Amino acid sequence: MRKYKLFYKALPVAVIFFALKVIVHHFGYECIPSNLMTMLPTILTSIVFVLGFLLAGVIADYKESEKIPNELSASFFAIWQETYLHYQTKPSERLREFLVEMPKEIRTLLLDFFIKHDKNALKVLDKWVMDIHKFDGNEMATVYANRLKTELVSIRKMFNRITVVKKTDFLPSVFTTIRIIVCIFIGVFLFLDVTPWWGGAILPALFAFMIFIILYVIQDIEDPFEYLNEDLKGKGDEVDMNILTDTIRNIEEQSRNIC
């Protein structure tokens, strides 16, 4: 049903405009002469051009956002694997505790950040920095500790990028303006004297359906990180996080084997 979500969302809009046209025709309010219809294709072309501009902008952000789950997954696993290899060669209580707690803390981080929208979610990364700082020169050589710190910096950058994408509206003034223009454009059709009248009813419904479905697409992918649960399943066309959740499950399975 998710693939038809936008269809079902735009369909009521088309039905409403069809019903409005029937009402306008029934009461004889069609006061705009049909010869003015020659101007409407030019306006429609302009609307489609602006919609294409908006859609191209949000898709660029969306395509960039699709890379983030893979990069997060790689960084999380690199930190865990490097620590695990050092634990195998030089076991210590500090390394064991870090390895056991890390998958739980990743789950908490994702839940607090994506679902609860907790501003303090990234404090988990600060804790890891302190833990790795304690490993430096003790459980692992400085070069390896610095490598883990670099991965943590990359993770923080990715979360900051997600925050920017989520909170930044793409040209909100243009988006609001195009909505107003669309409503005026379709409103003109409601009062346009077209023969036969039912043809004049189909046109605004059809235009409303096509234009509003594009507006809903833009609105839906403008924030590609809206998730409903800790498994990071979205309610629409969100970025697929399966590779990240699979990595977390892999880390959890391996952590259970740590003595």
Question: Can you give a write-up of this model?
Answer:
The chain is built from nine helices and no strands. It is elongated and about 85 Å long. Helix 2 runs antiparallel to helix 7 (172-190), helix 4 packs antiparallel against helix 5 and helix 7 (172-190) runs antiparallel to helix 8 (197-221). With 259 residues, it is mainly alpha-helical. Helix content is 73%, strand content 0%.
Give a brief outline of the structure.
This protein is an all-alpha fold and 259 residues long. Helices cover 73% and strands 0% of the residues.
Q: How does the SSE layout of this entry go?
A:
Blueprint: H1 5-26, H2 40-65, H3 68-89, H4 93-115, H5 123-135, H6 142-167, H7 172-190, H8 197-221, H9 242-255
Helix pairs in contact: 1-8, 2-7, 2-8, 3-4, 3-6, 3-9, 4-5, 4-9, 5-6, 7-8
What is the β-strand count? 0
Low-pLDDT stretches: none
Q: Work out the oligomeric state of the chains in this entry.
A: single chain
Main structural class:
mainly alpha
Q: Shape, please?
A: elongated
- Helix content bin: over 70%
- Report the β-strand fraction as a percent range: under 5%
- Strand/helix succession: HHHHHHHHH
Q: Average pLDDT across residues?
A: 84
Q: Please give the count of helices.
A: 9
The main sheet comes to: none
